[in-house]
Write a structure and sequence with these properties.
single chain; alpha/beta; Rossmann fold; 2 domains; 9-stranded mixed beta sheet; 23 helices; 15 strands; about 15% strand
Length: about 550
C-alpha cells in the first residue's frame, strides 16, 4: 500500500501515556473516591439506573495490580461523527489488552452500533492495527448513528455478546452515544450477562465536558485545523484588502469551536451563541454589531475583515427560534404536501404569510429570499426545519450588506463591502490527530482496558490534568450517570448527558470579551499555521487556548 512520508512517520510515533500507566499493567492499582450522584434529577436517574447509579469515581495509581486474571474478549464500536484520534483509542485499548495477556481478543464491530446488532465485525491483529496508528478518521471499522435504546436491540446485542464470549463492550462516542452506553450497561447488569460497558468521550464540538472531563477528544485537532485555515484566510484578507470573509465553523449546540478559533486567530468578529441567547439578541442587533465593525474599519481605510459564525447561531436567536417553531407547526401533517404543490414562490409566500403570526412574519421578512427558501427545504425525520442546512454565514453577510446600503444612503458609511463565504466542517473531522490528541486518545483507550480489567461497568474512561505534560496526567474513571439529567426528547422524558455550553463567566470567554472591542476595529490577526507534529514541545504539544485559560 502506498503511503505518504507523513503517514509513515505517524505510524511510528509512540504516544505518551500518563505516568501511572507507563510502568506496565502489573504495577497499576486502583484508588476509589467518593460515591457520585447525577448532575440533576437524582431520584429519576437513580430509578432508571438502579444497578449502575451512585458508583464511586476511581483513579489509577502505581501499585500492585489486584485485578482478577481472566481472558478478556472485548468488542469496540465507533459511534457518531468522526473525530481525530479515534484510531488511537482503539490502538491503546488493543495494546493494553495484549500487554495483559496475549490470548486476549479485541473485536471491532463495523459501521457503529448497527455492527453490534448485525454481528458484523473484524478481529484485530498487530499488522491490521499498525496501519491505523496515529492517523485520522474512523475508517478502521467505520461509524454510524444508530441508537442502542430499545429492549429488542439490547436482547440482540446480548446474544451477539454471548456468541463471541464478550466480557466487555467499549463505545467511543459523544453525549448521545455515551448515554446509550449507560443504558446498555444498566441492561447488562440487570440481566446478569457479565458484560461490562465502558464509554470514551468524543466530539469535536467540545460540548462533552464537565468538572471531570476536561476535554473531549478531537476538539484539539479540529480547532487547530480550522484555526490554521482561518489564519490563512486572515493573511489573504490582509494581503488583498478587499473582502470580508464570513466563516461558519462546526458547533450546532454550543460555540466552543468558534470561541477556540477566535482565541487562536483574533478575528474582527466572532459570534458566541450562548451570549446571543443570554442577551436575547435579535437578528437586527447582530447585524448592526457586525456592520459597526465594518464601518469603523472602513473609516480607517480597512475594507476587509474576518467574522467567525458558529454553525448553530440562529437557534440561539430567540425570535428566530420562535419563527422556526411556527414554521414547524405550519407544515405539520399533510400541510407540507399542500405547500410543496404550490407552483411559485409568490404563492408559497402568500401561504406562509397567512399561516404565521405578525411577529414571526416580521422576522421572516427580514431574511434574504434565499434564506427564506432554505427554511422550507426538506424536513428532518420529525417533520422539522433542518436548521443545520441554513447558510448562516451567507445570511449575516447579506443582512450586513443591506444594512450598509442604508447607512450609505444616509451618508454614514462611505466604504466598500465585498464578501466571501466559507464553511469549515469536514475539513477538521478526520485530520491527522495532533500530538495532544494522539496521546490523549491512546491514554483513553489504554485506560478503558484498565477499567475493564478491574471489573467496572457504566463508566467513562477519564484522563485529567491534561493541560500539563502527559507525564502528569491522571487516569481513572467516572460513572456515566454522574453526568446525566432528564430532558424532553420527542415528547418523552429521557435520561441524557447534559451538554456543556460556553460559560459566559468562564476564563476563555472573559479573555475574548476583554479583547474583542480592539479586534473589531484593528487588524490584530494571529496566524497559528498548520499543525506541527515534529519539533520542540512548546510548538508540537500545545493544548487548546481554551484549556490553557481554564486551567490557568
Amino acid at each position: 500500500m502506498d503511503v505518504s512520508p507523513l503517514q509513515k512517520a505517524r505510524y511510528e510515533y509512540n504516544p505518551k501515556l500518563p505516568g501511572m500507566l507507563r510502568n506496565g499493567i502489573a504495577d497499576i492499582c486502583v484508588s476509589e473516591g467518593e460515591a457520585t450522584q447525577s448532575v440533576a434529577d437524582q431520584d429519576k436517574i437513580k430509578a432508571l439506573f438502579p444497578n449502575t447509579y451512585g458508583k464511586k469515581e476511581i483513579t489509577f495509581a502505581k501499585g500492585t495490580n489486584t485485578s482478577a486474571a481472566k481472558k478478556q474478549v472485548v468488542g469496540v464500536i465507533l459511534s457518531g461523527g468522526q473525530a481525530p484520534g479515534g484510531h488511537n483509542v482503539i490502538s491503546g485499548l488493543y495494546d493494553a489488552l495484549k500487554a495483559t495477556d496475549k490470548s486476549n481478543v479485541l473485536l471491532g464491530f463495523k459501521g457503529g452500533p448497527s455492527g453490534l446488532i448485525d454481528d458484523d465485525y473484524i478481529e484485530f491483529t498487530d499488522s491490521f492495527i499498525n496501519e491505523y496508528r496515529n492517523t485520522g478518521g474512523f475508517d478502521i471499522i467505520g461509524s454510524g448513528r444508530t441508537k442502542l435504546e430499545t429492549e429488542e436491540q439490547f436482547k440482540i446485542v446480548t446474544e451477539v455478546a454471548k456468541k463471541h464470549g464478550l466480557t466487555a463492550i467499549v463505545i467511543i462516542g459523544g453525549d448521545d452515544s455515551n448515554t446509550n452506553a449507560a443504558v446498555l450497561a444498566e441492561y447488562m447488569a440487570a440481566h446478569n450477562t457479565g458484560v461490562q460497558v465502558i464509554g470514551c468521550p468524543k466530539t469535536i464540538d467540545g460540548d462533552l465536558k464537565n468538572e471531570d472531563i476536561e476535554a473531549s477528544f478531537g476538539f484539539d485537532t479540529a480547532t487547530k485545523t480550522y484555526s490554521g485555515l482561518i489564519g490563512n484566510i486572515e493573511r489573504d484578507a490582509n494581503s488583498a484588502k478587499k473582502y470580508w470573509h464570513f466563516i461558519k465553523v462546526m458547533g450546532r449546540s454550543a460555540s466552543h469551536v468558534a470561541l477556540e478559533c477566535a482565541l487562536e486567530t483574533q478575528p474582527n468578529i466572532c459570534l458566541i451563541g450562548e451570549e446571543v441567547a443570554a442577551k436575547k439578541m435579535s437578528l437586527a442587533q447582530i447585524t448592526n454589531y457586525i456592520a459597526d465593525s465594518v464601518e469603523k474599519r472602513a473609516a480607517n481605510g480597512d475594507h476587509f475583515g474576518v467574522a467567525i459564525i458558529p454553525e448553530g447561531i440562529v437557534e440561539f436567536v430567540p425570535e428566530f427560534s420562535a419563527l422556526i417553531a411556527e414554521i414547524n407547526e405550519l407544515l405539520a401533517g399533510k400541510k407540507t404536501e399542500e405547500f410543496n404543490a404550490l407552483p411559485s414562490w409568490d404563492e408559497k409566500y402568500a401561504f406562509i404569510k397567512k399561516g404565521l403570526s405578525a411577529d414571526a412574519m416580521a422576522v421572516f421578512d427580514i431574511l434574504p429570499q434565499g434564506i427564506q427558501q432554505q427554511l422550507f427545504l426538506e424536513r428532518d425525520p420529525h417533520g422539522n426545519v433542518q436548521v443545520s442546512l441554513i447558510e448562516s454565514e451567507k445570511l449575516f453577510a447579506e443582512m450586513v450588506g443591506t444594512e450598509l446600503e442604508k447607512r450609505k444612503a444616509a451618508g454614514t458609511f462611505k466604504g466598500k463591502f465585498g464578501t466571501q463565504h466559507h464553511f469549515f466542517g469536514y475539513e477538521g473531522r478526520c485530520a491527522f490527530p495532533s500530538n495532544f490528541d494522539a496521546d490523549y486518545c491512546y491514554s483513553l483507550g489504554y485506560n478503558a482496558f484498565m477499567l475493564i480489567q478491574y471489573g467496572y461497568t457504566g463508566y467513562l474512561s477519564k484522563v485529567s490534568n491534561i493541560s500539563k505534560p502527559a507525564e502528569q496526567w491522571v487516569a481513572g474513571g467516572m460513572p456515566i450517570t454522574k453526568m446525566m439529567n432528564i430532558e424532553r426528547r420527542n415528547g418523552e422524558d429521557k435520561p441524557v448527558i447534559r451538554k456543556a455550553l460556553v460559560e459566559l463567566d468562564g476564563k476563555p470567554f472573559k479573555y475574548f470579551e476583554a479583547h474583542r472591542e480592539q479586534w473589531a476595529v484593528e487588524t490584530c490577526f494571529t496566524y497559528p499555521g498548520a499543525i506541527q507534529y515534529f519539533g520542540p514541545s512548546e510548538v508540537c504539544d500545545l493544548t487548546t487556548r481554551t484549556l490553557a485559560l481554564e486551567k490557568g
